[in-house]
Amino acid sequence: MGVFSAFHYPKWSMRRKLFGYMILLAAILLLALMAGLFLFGRFDSTERRTFESLDIQMEVFEKDVSAHFDRLAAESLHLSEDMTVFLEEYLAEQEITFSDLTDSDDNIAQIQDLMIEHLRQTLLQEDCSGVFVMWDTTVNQSVANAEFSRTGVYLQQNGYKNTDESILLYRGLAEVGKKHGIMPHRKWRLEFQTDQFPSFDEVCALSGLPLEKSYYLTERFTLPGTSEEAVLMVAPIVGTNGSFYGICGYEVSASYFTTYHAQPTKIAHLTCLLTSGGAQTLDADAGLSCGVAGDYYRTPNGQLSVKSAGDGLSYFNGDEVSYIGLTREISLSPNNQPHTVAVMMLRADHDRAVMKSFLQNAVLWALLLFFAVSCCLYFSRHYLKPILKGLEQIKSEDRTEIQSSVPEINDLFVFLAEQDRQHEESLDAVTREKQTVQQEKEILQSKYDHAQQVYDTAQAEYVRAQEELTEAKKELDRLAYSRKDEIDPDDYQHFLSGIRELTKTEREVFEWYLLGKTAKDIIAATGIKESTLKFHNHNILKKLGVSSRKQMLRYAALMKQLEQGGIADDTCGQAE
Amino acid sequence: MKRYLSVLLTALLLLSCLTACGGKTTLDPDNPVTLTMWHVYGEQADSPMNRLIAEFNATVGQEKGILVTVTNVTSTSKISAQLEAALTGDPDTPEMPDLFSTHTNTAEELGTEHLLDWNTCFSEDELKNYVPEFLEDGTMNGKLVVFPVSKSTYALFLNGSQFERFSADTGVTYDALSTWEGFFDAAAKYYDWSDGKPFCAFDYLIRHVEFDVMAKDGALEYTEDGWYDLQNPSLEESWMKFARSLAQGHIVVSDQYSNTQVMTGETLGGIGSTAAITYYNDTVTYPDNTSEPTNLKVLPLPRSGDGEQYMPMTGVGLSAYATTEQKAEAAAVFVRWLTEGERNLDFVVETGYMPVNNDAFEAIEGYEFPDAGYASLFDAIKTMRDGYTPVVRPAFGGYYDKVDALYEGLRQMQGELRERSDNGESADILAKEIWDFFCSVQ
Q1: In terms of residue numbers, what domain contains A312?
Q2: What interface predicted TM-score (ipTM) does this complex get?
Q3: Are A456 and A497 within one domain?
C-alpha cells in the first residue's frame, strides 16, 4: 500500500491522482506485456534470431552439399565401373593389353570415339559442370613432359543451360569431338597434364582400396587456360585384375556451384561456403561459395579468421569483408579430411540488424510509453471532465436543470437539490423568525425609547428634585444654621438617643423621612398602610422627643450637618 | 487544372530523370544495388572483364554501393538469342540481366524502349571523350542505347612457328598476305605443302566478300529485305574468288571459332575478330601430341586491289535494361569507370579490342605489350585504322539467321567439295556450286 499512499498526498488534484493511477496501471500492463513477450521468446536477441535463421539455413545447405557430392561420388564410382568394363571389352576385342595403348593414336582415337557419347549423356544427366576420363597412357611418349601427359576425354558444359549444344571438348581429340558435334573448348588441349590437374597421384594410390571407398574430392584448382576454378570428384578406374587404368570423375566449377547451390532464402546476402580448413581459419580461396537465389552475396576471399561472437555464432573476418555465421564439419569422402561448411551473413548487415532491432524496440517502447501517457492524460481528462464540470456546476447557483453524463453526479445533484430545498425551507423559517424577532426588537426598541424618555424625564425630575433637595438642604442648612441656636441641646440629645431606640421598621421610616420622602412616597415604597405609617410616625416622634415631623427633620438635618462637620463647633460642643 | 497537372507531371519527370543519373544519388553504400551482367569477354577462358568487375566491386562499387555480378559469360553469336529468350521470360533462361553486351541490331530487336538511354547519364563534355563513330554506332532513334566499351575488327592470325617453316620451304612471306591474290596463292601453296591442310579458317567469310565488292564499286547495295543483291555481277565475282579457294580446300569456313582450328594445327591461320587473341593458346598441339609455340603473328586483312579498303567495325557495347533509377545510376557509374582512359586501354589491350576513349586511343601508341602476339595485333589494328574505312555490320532483321544458314551450309559442303577438287573436278564448277548455294539461302 506504500505506492498508493503516495496518491493520498493532499495537495495533488483529483486529475493528477487519477493520472497517477492510470500511469501505474499502464506501467503494470507494459511490464506484463514485456514479461509475456519474454516468456514467449519474442524478446530474443538479434543474435539469437540470427543464429536460428542461419542454423536452419545450415541444415539446408549442409544437406544440399552432402547430397550433391554423395551423388557425384556414387556416379563417379559407376562411371569408373562402366569405364573398366568398356576398356576391358575393347582391349579384349582388339586383343591388346592396356600398355599397348601407349603411343597408339589409332586405339586412343577409337576409344575416345566410343566413349565420348557415353560421357556426353552422363554430363547431360548429372548435376555437374564437367565429366572426364583420364587414361593412364599417352598418345606419344616421345614428346617433352610426356610423363605428365595422359590421354582421355574431358567434356565441359558451357553457359547456364545444361544442353547438348553447350557441351565443349576441353581435353581429347578435336576430330573425335567434331565428329560427334562437340566443338573444342577455346582452351582446348589434346591431353591432360597431370601436373596441372590435382590429385592424380593421390587417386592412383587409392586404387588399391575397395572401389566404394576409393573416391576423392580434389582441392579447388584453376582449370588450365581459363579463370574458372573447380573441384573434381574423382574415382580410380581399376581393372578386374587390379591394374590401374586411370581416373574419372565429375567437375563442379565454382560458377556451377554458385548457381546450383544458390539458396532460396530471405536472409539478405547470405553467403555459404564449402571449404577445407579448421576451426581457427577458413580458407575461402580453397572453397566453393554460393549465395542467395536472385540476390547477390559478397564472395569470400582469402583467409577468414574465426572468432566467437556468442549465441553459437562466429565472426569470420577477412581482409575486405567480415561475416557472422556458423560452421559445421562435413565429410564428403572417406579419403579427405572433413570439409567445413559455413553459412554466413555480412557482418555489416548483422550489425545494422542489431542496431535496427534496438532502434525498433526503442521506438516501439517509446511509442507505447507515449501512447500510455497520452492515453492516461486523455482518459483521465476525459473521465474527470464531467466530474469536474459537475463539481463546477455544484458551485453554481442554479443546479435545478443540470444533467451530467455521470449517474453518480446526477444522483448527487438530486441529493443536493433535496438539500437545497430543505435548506431553503429552513432559511425561510429562519427568515420568518428573524422578521418576527425584528418586529419584537422594534417593539422593544420602541418600549425602550419610551422608557428612555420616561427615564430622561424622571432623570430631569430627579435632577430638578436634586436641585430642589440641594436647595432644600441649603435652605435647611441655612435654616439649621439660622436656628441652631434655637435648638435645645437636651432635646437634641434626647433626639439622638431616641434614634437608638427606634425599631427596625421605625428606623426604616425615619430614614425615608430623612431622604426627603413624603408619607405617600413611603407608603408606596414600603407597601405599608397609611395607618401603619401614622402609627410608626407617632412612635418615632415620641421616642425622638419631638413634637412634629418638621422638628424631627430639623434635628435630623442638624445631626447630618454635625456628622458632616457642617455646623459650627460650638453647637457640637454644646451638643457634647 | 489540366495545365497544372501537366506542369506537375513534367516537374516530376524531370526530377526523376535528375535523380536517375544526375541529381541526388540513389546509391547507398550500406545497401548496395546489384547489377547482373552478361558479357562476351573471355568465354571459356580467363576473362579480363571479370577481373575488372572484381576490381570495381572492391573499390568504387564498395564505396558507392554497387555490386556487379556476372551471371553469364557467353559469346556474341549466342547472346542475342539468350537476351531475347530472357526478355520473353523463357522458363529455362535466367532473368533479364541489368547490363549486357549487345549489338545495335540486338538492341533494336529487344526494343529500345526497354533500354536505358545513356545520353541521360553522361554529359555532353563526357561524351566528347569517346570516339564519335562508336557513339554513333550505338545510337538508335536518337537514343544512345549501346554504349561503346570496346570495338573490334577482323585480322589474320597465323601460327608463326609453322609459317616460318612454310615460308622457308616455299618463299611465301607475310608481305605476300597483304593482298587477297597473294593470300589465295599462299593458301594454295600451303595446301600442297601440308599435304592437304587448309591454310586459313574464316569466321565471317561473307564480310570479306562484301569488302571486296566495296573496294571495287565503292559501295554495296542490299536488297529491300536485307540481303545481298545476287544480280550484282561484282558480288558474284568477289564471291567466286573466295569460293574457288574454298572449293579446293585452301580455306575453310571455321567450325565455330577459327582460333580452335589454329591451335589444333588444323589450319595455319584464321581470320576472325581481333578479340579472338584472348583465346589463342601459347602452343599449337597436333594430333600426335607434339606441340610448338604458336608465335602468334597478326596481320591486317588482305587488301582488295588498289582502291579504298574496308574493315569491319564490330564489337558489342554495353546496354542497360531500363528498370529502376538506382540501377540506371549504378550502371552509369560502372560504365563511366570501365571506359576511363587508362582502364579502357588496359582492358582493350588485354582483350584485343580497339579503345573507345580518345585518350586511350592516343596512349596505345606507346603501350608496352605483354607479348609479341599482342604487339603484332595492335600493329595490324593501327595499319587498318590508318588505311581502311570502318564499316558497321549489317543490322537487317533476319540477316544473321541467313548468314548462319549460309555458314552452316558451307561447313557441310566444304569437306565434300575438297575431296572432289582433290579428285580433279574443276574449281570453277565447284565454286559455281557454292555460288548456287549462296543464291539459295533465303
Answers
A1: 44-358
A2: 0.80
A3: no
